[in-house]
User: Which sequence fits this backbone?
């Protein structure tokens, strides 16, 4: 199914002779969280700015909801909520006044939209505190309130947890999860922290020096992350018996299609194979699946890894 | 002069008409845009919203449509979620049954194919039987849990001496503690206290918690206490075992949640969710405190229902 | 557009800079006139002479600088506060956003000019009596308004500079001061050069009895106004954020 909310084709950004985003083709599917992972300066923000039409595209194409942004701004912008870099608000005005300004410019979906958006992120409505005296966490939350003001289908969040304390990070993460799970929103989120993306994203794109090194589902990556021996046999029951009696392990599961996973990776493969063959369990595959996300990222980023 | 006045009036009228025409045109465009969005909603995109300026003449209409869409979407979401969790459950259960079944059949097949003889064969039969019993136990647990989950369980309240009964339940576990080299400290008041409670539910709760100490705790010491306090019954089960990690702790009462992500470990993931359901059924509360590598404390609180005096 | 202007108005709430600029624009002529009244040294000048003298302080110098300051501030603040990103992702074209700002600025400028007119009339009434004021009211009003409007349109290049400089403040401020300087120095320019440069043609064309080529002056002012406007919009439209 080709239901991409954001699709970029060979997106490139050059500043003079330096290419900061190079032929990036990402596919953000409807209802999923897409994590854009990359170190600082990898080009995440630049990519998002190009998607949002804030920054000119050097070459390539962006399609939002299947349409190009140019000439369709009036139709497409209302469907997108975004935070790019630091949330920008007028420092001498209160959070409520700030949101009222943006509500005025963008239009609203209900009478008390500002009040509800503030309530959702846990900020007070109509208080006297100006934005300049907000804490970083409150600023970030106001940014989120502004992004969800019109209950948009697509959220583009550039490092939304940047600079928050661990509790704040957990809160924002839970909130983004609920936006996706409960409200079915499509979310493009960027981060330079691996665990952040690993905990949140359904799909992941890895950006390194402006190149998209990998685009995959998190589920696929997690499979790579586990450590187990994968075997395929003709008789699961015989294999199970061998595992328990000969190799003395209970740490295995029987999967569909006559395959099994042995989580006890200390087992010697040759011995395992011999034992399985001796009872006629009919081994057709035997392999160690062991990878660790972090090692994996190190591998694809050419050894340097991602924080 | 007359011409001038007429001219003025005509000019003003022209302006008014132009303004009205513009206003009408704007409204029409807004309505048309709204209509295409409503079409998309009708085609199933429940995330679409009508966005209008507060001062627009179509604002209240659009706000109402949005409200209806949001409501419908929320209901739809509830259905979808129920469906999803049901599917997840089914997958997970089939998974949990397949592995022990494969193992059980393995032993039986080994016997049938004549790989083992004599004493070893006897041994195999015994293992197979134990595995079958485990499986039976699992299925029983499952049904008990399903019954609880669907709200079909009926609670029978009886008048019993709660201190006596608590002692009875815990003392059944003493041989098991001793077998596993676990020191125990049981403190239950000596006096009589008659309360009205569902006996089997209470036994089930305590049994499950104590069983967990044995299977998961790897403890060397266990403390069980029961007391009456502030018109409440309080139970405490404390061990000095491996504890539960901070990330797992909030989820342990969820159904099918298993802390140890490595599969093939013991347990169905149903025990604690049964406990939680039963505690809820008895209008009690359960809390847990745990420190990794230090131990775990389960704390239960039940309302004290004193039976009516019978003359 | 209505919503955009309403939003711009909301932004100006509790805004100290706009308030101080406005107060300054009002206090300055009031102070000068008050000194004149207390010194009672009026017979030296005719009423128009007095108005021109006042203009040389306020309208030549102070108002263009204040106006440029306000315009710079209106645009530059969006960049420093990072609000530009939120503004640009609203379903409003960039052209409209900028025009909205310019309208707010123009409104401020015109309001200040009218306030100044009112203050001058009041002062003239006290100093010269109402009869003299009635006699030359039309002349005074047209002079002040014309001066104010021409300043307004020749300051549009400031908007362009303000867009280009983003978070900086000084380039556009420097430009404002240069423009004002040229306006003043223009009085001593040769006739042709004075009319060719838009900022010097403003006073030359407004103050009666100056050496000026009216067609050339008008043309250069118009070109300057449209050039400034066009470049501001063009640069804003094609600017990378
Ligand atoms: N205006 C600019 N001119 C030149 N280089 C730029 C400009 N903006 C960003 N860059 C460069 O582009 C690269 C990517 O930046 P950015 O997209 O902000 O990365 P990220 O958000 O992943 O940290 C950086 O190396 C940065 O130096
Ligand atoms: Mg960045």
Assistant:
């Amino acid at each position: 199914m080709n239901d991409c909310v954001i699709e970029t084709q060979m997106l490139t950004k050059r500043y003079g002779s330096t290419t900061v985003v190079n032929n990036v083709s990402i596919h953000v599917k409807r209802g999923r969280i897409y994590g854009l992972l990359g170190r600082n300066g990898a080009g995440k923000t630049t990519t998002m700015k190009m998607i949002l039409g804030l920054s000119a595209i050097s070459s390539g194409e962006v399609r939002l909801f299947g349409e190009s942004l140019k000439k369709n701004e009036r139709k497409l912008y209302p469907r997108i909520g975004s935070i790019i870099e630091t949330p920008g608000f007028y420092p001498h005005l209160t959070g409520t006044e700030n949101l009222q300004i943006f509500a005025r410019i963008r239009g609203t979906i209900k009478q008390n939209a500002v009040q509800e958006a503030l309530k959702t992120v846990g900020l007070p409505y109509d208080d006297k505190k100006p934005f300049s005296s907000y804490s970083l966490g409150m600023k970030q939350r106001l940014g989120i309130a502004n992004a969800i003001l019109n209950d948009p289908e697509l959220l583009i969040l550039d490092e939304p947890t940047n600079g928050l304390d661990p509790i704040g990070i957990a809160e924002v993460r839970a909130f983004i999860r609920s936006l996706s799970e409960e409200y079915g929103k499509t979310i493009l989120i960027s981060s330079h922290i691996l665990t952040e993306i690993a905990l949140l994203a359904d799909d992941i794109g890895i950006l390194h020096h402006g190149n998209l090194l990998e685009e995959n589902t998190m589920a696929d990556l997690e499979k790579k992350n586990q450590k187990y021996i994968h075997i395929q046999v003709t008789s699961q029951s015989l294999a199970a018996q061998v595992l328990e009696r000969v190799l003395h392990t209970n740490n295995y599961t029987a999967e569909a299609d006559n395959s099994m996973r042995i989580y006890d990776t200390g087992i010697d493969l040759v011995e395992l194979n011999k034992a399985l063959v001796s009872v006629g369990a009919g081994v057709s595959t035997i392999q160690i699946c062991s990878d660790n996300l972090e090692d994996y990222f190190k591998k694809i980023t050419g050894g340097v890894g991602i924080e | 002069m007359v011409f001038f006045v007429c001219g003025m009036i005509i000019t003003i009228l022209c302006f008014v008409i132009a303004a009205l025409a513009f206003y009408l045109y704007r409204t029409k465009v807004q309505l048309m845009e709204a209509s295409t969005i409503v079409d998309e909603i009708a085609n199933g995109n429940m995330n679409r919203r009508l966005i209008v300026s507060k001062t627009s003449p179509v604002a209240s209409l659009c706000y109402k449509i949005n409200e209806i869409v949001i409501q419908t979407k929320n209901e739809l979401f509830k259905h979808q979620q129920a469906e999803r969790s049901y599917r997840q459950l089914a997958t997970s259960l089939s998974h949990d049954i397949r592995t022990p079944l494969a193992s059980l059949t393995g032993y039986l097949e080994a016997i049938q194919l004549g790989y083992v003889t004599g004493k070893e064969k006897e041994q195999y039969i015994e293992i197979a039987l134990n595995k079958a019993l485990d499986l039976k136990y699992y299925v029983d647990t499952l049904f008990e849990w399903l019954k609880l989950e669907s709200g079909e369980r009926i609670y029978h309240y009886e008048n019993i001496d709660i201190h006596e009964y608590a002692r009875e339940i815990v003392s059944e576990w003493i041989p098991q503690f001793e077998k596993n080299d676990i020191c125990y400290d049981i403190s239950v008041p000596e006096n009589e206290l008659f309360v009205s409670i569902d006996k089997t539910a209470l036994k089930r709760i305590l049994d499950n918690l104590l069983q967990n100490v044995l299977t998961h705790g790897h403890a060397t010491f266990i403390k069980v206490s029961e007391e009456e306090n502030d018109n409440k019954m309080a139970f405490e089960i404390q061990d000095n075992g491996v504890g539960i990690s901070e990330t797992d702790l909030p989820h342990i009462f969820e159904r099918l949640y298993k802390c140890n992500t490595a599969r093939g470990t013991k347990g169905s993931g149903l025990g604690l969710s049964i406990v939680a359901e039963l505690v809820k059924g008895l209008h009690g509360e359960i809390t847990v405190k745990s420190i990794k590598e230090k131990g775990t404390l389960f704390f239960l609180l039940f309302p004290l229902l004193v039976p009516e005096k019978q003359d | 557009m209505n919503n955009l202007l309403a939003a711009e108005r909301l932004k100006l709430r509790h805004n100290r800079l706009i308030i101080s600029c406005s107060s300054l624009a009002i206090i300055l002529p009031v102070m000068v006139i008050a000194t004149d009244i207390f010194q009672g040294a009026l017979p030296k000048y005719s009423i128009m002479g007095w108005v021109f003298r006042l203009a040389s302080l306020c309208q030549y110098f102070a108002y263009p600088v204040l106006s440029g300051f306000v315009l710079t501030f209106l645009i530059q603040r969006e960049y420093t506060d990072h609000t530009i990103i939120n503004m640009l992702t609203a379903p409003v074209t960039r052209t409209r956003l900028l025009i909205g700002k310019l309208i707010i600025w123009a409104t401020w400028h015109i309001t200040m000019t009218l306030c100044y007119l009112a203050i001058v009339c009041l002062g003239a009434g006290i100093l010269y009596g109402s009869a003299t004021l009635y006699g030359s009211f039309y002349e005074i009003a047209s002079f002040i308004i014309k001066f104010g409007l021409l300043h307004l349109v020749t300051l549009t290049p400031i908007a362009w500079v303000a867009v280009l400089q983003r978070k900086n403040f000084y380039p556009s401020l420097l430009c404002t001061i240069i423009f004002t300087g040229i306006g003043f120095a223009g009085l001593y320019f040769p006739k042709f050069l004075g009319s060719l440069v838009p900022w010097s043609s403003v006073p030359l064309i407004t103050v009666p009895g100056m050496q000026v080529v009216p067609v050339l002056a008008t043309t250069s002012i118009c070109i300057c106004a449209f050039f400034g406007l066009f470049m501001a919009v063009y640069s804003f439209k094609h600017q990378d954020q």
Q: What stands out?
A: Residues A 15, 20, 38, 40-46 surround adenosine-5'-diphosphate (ligand 1) (CB under 6 Å). Residues 2-237 of chain C form one domain.
